[in-house]
């Protein structure tokens, strides 16, 4: 290797060492003080310069850090994810065609704390960057429309995103349907059902399918709560007092039995005369039937589940290794 090659290799190793150092420093941030996030991140252009052509490798390293960082912060229920935008910018600058970083990165950014960074504008900017670098990938338009609709409550911009995406070769026909639904101000629950049903039918990824099924269960619950509430209000009108329980409605002949939610738990009536679900954590995306004063903040996250699964798997492997080692040590040696 000539001198130039040696110098280049040393610079690259130094850059990677910096990345490892950053990773170790991130790993030490396990308490709430970590929310202050004083760790310095180099600019995307700086990292690209020191990568010396190994942009793809460095992008993979930084994307791994994004996933690990988000998973840990999520499990800690942190209120800030200050390193997340910078890590994602570095990742997507190193590899502008790493579509997964735009898609899941936008999800990480858009969710409200502690489930995410609570930065839908940053998520929108990231997806637009992805579209600019990958104009043929119609799903990025879908992601953009989804953020506008769900996080920004902006159906007009969502409709524009879905419409633009529907024109990309290979786009699913339901993109145009979604655009039309948004543009005409369709009922949110009806739109949500269409969206999640299409996702469920369109993907084989088990995590995404599980999320879509959970979302559809929540849509079902929302629709049922709205209908039950009408009967509860009607009972109050007729009787002159609020029902204290669902059993009272059954006794009045309004229901044949106490209605249950999609998880099999009975709906309840709170002291305010509102229909509520028994366990909101079991239906994390509901917008109807939440206990009084409780915000919609239960977000089902596949990465958090994966992180827990990995930890359990690591503990299991460690335990098996210890048992194997212990068994080997206690086993008599028959060799002469």
TrEMBL record:
Biased composition (Basic and acidic residues): 311-325
Ranges where the record places region Disordered: 311-336
Keyword rRNA processing: no
Biased composition, class Low complexity, residue ranges: 326-336
SUPFAM superfamilies assigned: TPR-like (SSF48452)
Signal sequence coordinates: 1-21
Keyword Signal among record annotations: yes
InterPro entries recorded: TPR-like_helical_dom_sf
Keywords linked to the UniProt accession: Signal
Protein name: Tetratricopeptide repeat protein
Species the sequence originates in: Koribacter versatilis (strain Ellin345)
Lineage, opening ranks: Bacteria, Pseudomonadati, Acidobacteriota, Terriglobia, Terriglobales
